Amino acid sequence: MASLKLFLITILISGIQVSAQSEIPKNYAKGELMLFDGSSIKGYIKNDFKRVSQITILNESGVKKAYWADLITRISFGVENYICVKAEFFKVISTGTIGLIQKASDISGKIIGYNGAEPIFGSGSEGEVNDFFFYAMITNNLSLLTKKNYSEVIMTVFKGCSQITANTTKYSFNQEEFISLTETYNSRCGESHSSH
Predict the structure, then answer these.
(1) Which of 9, 101, 149, 182 stands the most exposed, by the fewest C-beta atoms within 10 Å?
(2) Helix, strand, coil share (%) of the chain residues, nearest 5
(3) Is the model's pTM score more than 0.90?
């Protein structure tokens, strides 16, 4: 009789844990992150990009753990995908040999850890949160786009792709234009021109 009670209590507790894990916690979204060691973790992810350049994941076993951007290669939750470059998160707008990404965190001047009692400050990348960058996937190179430099950046990033560089004055500073440029480059010019 005692073993039957123990068995029923075990089933009841297991059922409660499964039920609790199937509900999405407040401020979390279902997703997956890929670590630099090649492993991946699925679970519920809390986006804390702008504040501290880290995420918290509640994995499928119910264990909560925080990860700094410098430990992560990519992350996806909801319909959004992010990559990590220079210990910062960037939203992926378009992909390919050259992609368009948007800065989602900034660690410049923020404490990102400690060496004993000494704080370690992050240097991060240039630009601010929400700035656009062309991103060379193979070389891990970021090219910040600003209203002042975008024509020059287009000429440099897409050097050797005459379909793009023939007339940079026709381009305007907007996300749709940048997406179109990366799509043109990736479909017409290919990997042989990605060594900028």
Answers:
(1) 9
(2) 30, 35, 30
(3) no
Burial of 170 (0-12, 13-18, 19+ CB in 10 A): exposed
Query: Which distant-in-sequence residues (6+ apart) come within 8 Å of 16 by Cβ?
Result: none
If residue 155 lies in a helix (H) or strand (E), which one and from where to where? helix 150-157
Contact 106, 112 (CB under 8 A): no
Q: For residues 31 and 165, what is the distance between their CA atoms, to the nearest angstrom?
A: 38
Task: Name the DSSP letter for residue 186.
Answer: I
Question: Residue 74 is encoded by which pair of tokens?
Answer: 């990519």
Instruction: Give CA separation, 130 vs 75, 82, 122, 133, in Å.
Output: 18, 13, 18, 10
Query: What is the spatial distance between Cα 43 and Cα 28, in angstroms, rounded to a whole number?
Result: 9
Of the candidates 97, 94, 100, the one whose C-alpha atom is nearest the C-alpha of residue 189 is: 97
With tokens 């991060």, the residue in question is 124
- Rg of the Cα atoms in the chain: 22
The enclosing H or E element of 89 equals strand 88-94
What is the phi/psi pair of residue 104, to 5°?
Answer: -115, -10
